[in-house]
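re the bet — no i am not wrong, look at it urself. input seq straight from the record:
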Amino acid sequence: MGGGSPYEGGCQCGAVRYSVEAERLTAYACHCRECQKQSASAFGLSVPVFEASLNVTGMTASWRRPTDSGSHTRCFFCPTCGTRLYHAGENRPGLVTVKGGSLDDAGQLQPVAHIWTASKQSWVVLPADVPHWEYQPETQEEWMELLGWAN
C-alpha cells in the first residue's frame, strides 16, 4: 500500500480514530486461531508499524493475552463498539500491529506473507508466489526481511 502519509483508520462507531505516518504500509495474513477468533474470519490482516508513528484519538481499552509464539500481546480496541484496532507484542518493543480491516482504505493492502498456516482453514488457498510459514519467522532478521525493512 503506498502513496500517502498519513494513513487513517478507526473503529466501526467512529469513537476512536488513528493515523499512521509512514511512506508505505506492509501487511501479512496470520492464520493462527487467535487471529481467526479476533477477526471472526479465516485470518487476521496485520500491518506492523513503529509505535511512534501511530497517533490515536479517542479512548481505547485493552487486554493482555498469551500468543502462540510463547510471548504476550496487548490488544487495543474501542470500548464502545469492540472493534480491534491494534496489538502491541511484548516481544517487539517499539512496534505495534494495526489491524488491517480498521484502515479507511484497506483495499490496497496485499499480504506479503502468510504465517501460522499450520492452523489455516482448509478451504483457504495460499498464492504460490507469496511466502508462507507453517508458524512464523523465528528471528528478528527474518521478520525484517518479510516486512521489507531489511537493510
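see?? The radius of gyration is 15 Å. told u. also The chain has a mean pLDDT of 87. so pay up
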